[in-house]
C-alpha cells in the first residue's frame, strides 16, 4: 500500500506500507519533502518499481489528478479525524501477542529534506509523534494542525485498512 498527504510549503508525505499475515502494518519507505511539485514527486514514486495494491490520498482533486496523469492510480482517503486517531491508537496498543500492530522501520526516509532539518522541524513521520498533541481551544477535539503531515497519512492508511471496505472502494477514474 501507499498513502499520500499532499504539500508543497508544508511537507508532501508518501509512505509505503506492507501488511503481514497477522494484519500488522510496516512502514518501510517514506518521501517526506517540501518545495517540490506533485509531478516531481510522481517521478520519484515511480522509480520504486513494485506492485502496489492501492494508493490512498488526501482529497485534493488537482493533486490526485496529477498523480493519475503520471501513472499513479489512487483513491481518496477517509479523513475522519477522531475515528482515524482512535484506530491508530488501537493499532499502537500492545496486542495479545505483546506486539503493537504498527511498525515504522528505521531509515525508511528516501531523502532527508535539509530545509526541514535547518528549520528544526520534523523530517520524517517518526519525529512527529512527540509533538502530536490536542488543541487547547475550547470545544476543539482535534490535534494541533502543525507538523502533522506524516500523522495525517498514517491516519488515512489505518482508516482505509481498518474500514472493512473492500480494497478499490471509492476508486475515481480521472481519465
Helix content: 25-40%
**How many DSSP helices?**
5
**What is the name of the CATH topology?**
Nucleotidyltransferase, domain 5
Tell me the domain tally.
1
- Overall CATH class: Alpha Beta
Structural shape = globular
The CATH architecture term is 2-Layer Sandwich
Strand count:
6
What is the distance, rounded to the nearest whole angstrom, between the alpha carbons of the first and last residues?
Answer: 22 Å
Main β-sheet description:
6 strands, mixed
Secondary-structure element pattern, one letter each: EEEHEHEHEHH
Low-confidence stretches: 165-175
Protein name: Terminase large subunit gp17-like C-terminal domain-containing protein
Organism: marine sediment metagenome
Question: What descriptive keywords fit this protein?
Answer:
6 strands, 175 residues, Nucleotidyltransferase, domain 5, 5 helices, single chain, alpha/beta, 17% strand, disordered C terminus, 27% helix, globular, six-stranded mixed beta sheet
Can you put this structure into words, describing what you see?
- With 175 residues, the protein is an alpha/beta fold.
- It has a single domain, classed as Nucleotidyltransferase, domain 5 (2-Layer Sandwich).
- The protein has five helices and six strands, in the order βββαβαβαβαα.
- The chain has helices at 38-46, 61-69, 81-92, 114-118, 149-161; strands at 2-5, 12-19, 25-33, 55-57, 75-76, 102-104.
- Strands 5-4-1-2-3-6 form a six-stranded mixed sheet.
- α3 crosses α5.
- This is Terminase large subunit gp17-like C-terminal domain-containing protein.
Amino acid at each position: 500500500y501507499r498513502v499520500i498527504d499532499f504539500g508543497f510549503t508544508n511537507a508532501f508525505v508518501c509512505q509505503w506500507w506492507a501488511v503481514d499475515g497477522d494484519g500488522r502494518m510496516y512502514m518501510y519507505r517514506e518521501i517526506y519533502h517540501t518545495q517540490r511539485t506533485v509531478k516531481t514527486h510522481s517521478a520519484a514514486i515511480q522509480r520504486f518499481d513494485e506492485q502496489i495494491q492501492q494508493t490512498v490520498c488526501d482529497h485534493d482533486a488537482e493533486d490526485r489528478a496529477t498523480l493519475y496523469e503520471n501513472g499513479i492510480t489512487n483513491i481518496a482517503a477517509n479523513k475522519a479525524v477522531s475515528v482515524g486517531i482512535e484506530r491508530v491508537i488501537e493499532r499502537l496498543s500492545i496486542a495479545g501477542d505483546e506486539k503493537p500492530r504498527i511498525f515504522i522501520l528505521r531509515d525508511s526516509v528516501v531523502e532527508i529534506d535539509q530545509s526541514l532539518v535547518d528549520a528544526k522541524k520534523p523530517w520524517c513521520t517518526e519525529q512527529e509523534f512527540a509533538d502530536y498533541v490536542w488543541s487547547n481551544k475550547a470545544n476543539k477535539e482535534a490535534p494541533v494542525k502543525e507538523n502533522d503531515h506524516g500523522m495525517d497519512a498514517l491516519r488515512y492508511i489505518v482508516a482505509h485498512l481498518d474500514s472493512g471496505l473492500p480494497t478499490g472502494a471509492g476508486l475515481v477514474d480521472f481519465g
